[in-house]
Amino acid sequence: GAGVSQSPSNKVTEKxxxxxxxxxxxxxxxxxxxxxxxxxxxxxxxxxFQGNSAPDKSGLPSDRFSAERTGGSVSTLTIQRTQQExxxxxxxxxxxxxxxxAFFGQGTRLTVV
Amino acid sequence: xxxxxSPQAVILREGEDAxxxxxxSKALYSVHWYRQKxxxxxVFLMILxxxxxxxxxxxxxxxxxxxxxxxxxxxxxxxxSYSGTYFCGTDLLGGNKLVFGAGTILxxxx
Lengths: 113, 110
Description:
Largest interface: A-B, 24 and 24 residues
Oligomer: heterodimer
Order of helices and strands of chain B: EEEEEEEEEEE
Mean pLDDT of chain B: 89
Mean pLDDT of chain A: 92
């Protein structure tokens, strides 16, 4: 596609439910990143995939968060047993190489009620 | 490890200049600058790499002082479209794992 695509754009879920957020990066981009942005806050790094290397999970806030990237393309961020503090916009970005500009998707706005 | 941005907010009139600063306590491989408008995704402005290489848009300029681990973004002859929140992201290892600052809110008034 022309840009990074994320789905769904909005997700409202009940506390305790699991959610899956999807990211479709730009074709050919080897690097993929997930960030979280709470209301009025900056961008918090979550996880980084580069090619076939093991992902850098150092930013995941708890073991309820996990992510995978299948076939070096589409990525899914899963949040288990969601909590109200998980409410945020989850942004995915991809870049051709690690030292090129990253293109961000429009994000998934997650609201946990 | 979060870089510190200053100022936190700035209001300009069209045509005025502004400088946004980003400083880190760690040795940096690169500094990335993004602008985000309300409700939109961050948009790339510039990358400054260790060693002096820059990648970015012609109308945006920035500097990177490797010794001081500081970067500055220069916005000249500001336009209304410059309004938004500017984030710097710092990369320590060249892997593009960016740690972003808290942002600088820029508002340009007519």
